[in-house]
Design brief:
Helix content: under 10%
Number of helices: 1
CATH class: Mainly Beta
Shape: globular
Mean pLDDT: 89
CATH architecture: Beta Barrel
Strand order of the largest sheet: 1-2-3-4-5-6-7-9-10-11
CATH topology: Lipocalin
Order of helices and strands: HEEEEEEEEEEE
Largest sheet: 10 strands, antiparallel, barrel
Number of strands: 11
Low-confidence stretches: none
């Protein structure tokens, strides 16, 4: 299954007319997450971004996600807004989880803050767009970041990813603080 997902993501990323790419790495005490974002199409008032991610933890749980987001930013407003959808597939101890979530993220980073920024993100998938053992999935969190160079940022944040399991309790895929780096190229 993972080989098919990796082939699909590779084909999508290689076929895009990418002009901007990012690599995000998030590490916590028991979780590692890697995200790759590329610009699929650029536009005057925003760009369409394709993202692929992989998360694993000390419990040998794994999660992959594939997303498509519209990102809007303005020189006159120090706010970057991304909205769109993410598809998730997770292999947990005794369950498999699949979901298609909608949501987005928001980053406030005025020039007067000297490279600092504050961001929030939220994605939700109700039961109607959840499958396998899932009855729903949510991912949310917040972070502060600092731009070291035009191509590199560091971040401290908190994130939580929960999956509501059919006929069982909610499973926490990830919960807690993380340290992250973001490299643009």
């Amino acid at each position: 299954m993972y080989s098919r997902i990796i082939l699909l993501v590779s084909a999508l990323l290689m076929s895009s007319a990418a002009t901007s790419e990012e690599l995000n790495i998030q590490l916590s005490d028991d979780t590692a997450r890697f995200m790759y974002l590329t610009e699929a199409f650029g536009q005057d008032f925003g760009r369409l971004e394709l993202e692929a991610g992989f998360l694993y933890n000390e419990n040998d749980d794994t999660m992959v996600n594939l997303g498509l987001l519209v990102r809007g930013e303005s020189v006159s407003v120090p706010l970057i807004v991304s909205i769109g959808a993410r598809a998730y597939y997770a292999s947990l101890a005794n369950n498999t989880v699949g979901a298609v979530a909608i949501g987005g993220d928001l980053l406030l980073s005025p020039e007067t803050w000297g490279g600092f920024g504050v961001g929030l993100f939220y994605y939700a998938a109700p039961s109607v767009v959840s499958f396998s053992d899932a009855e729903g999935l949510t991912e949310y969190g917040g972070y502060v970041n600092f731009q070291i160079t035009p191509q590199a940022r560091v971040a401290l944040g908190y994130q939580r990813i929960d999956a509501d399991i059919e006929n069982a309790a909610t499973v926490v895929i990830d919960k807690g603080s993380y340290f992250g780096i973001n490299i643009s190229f």
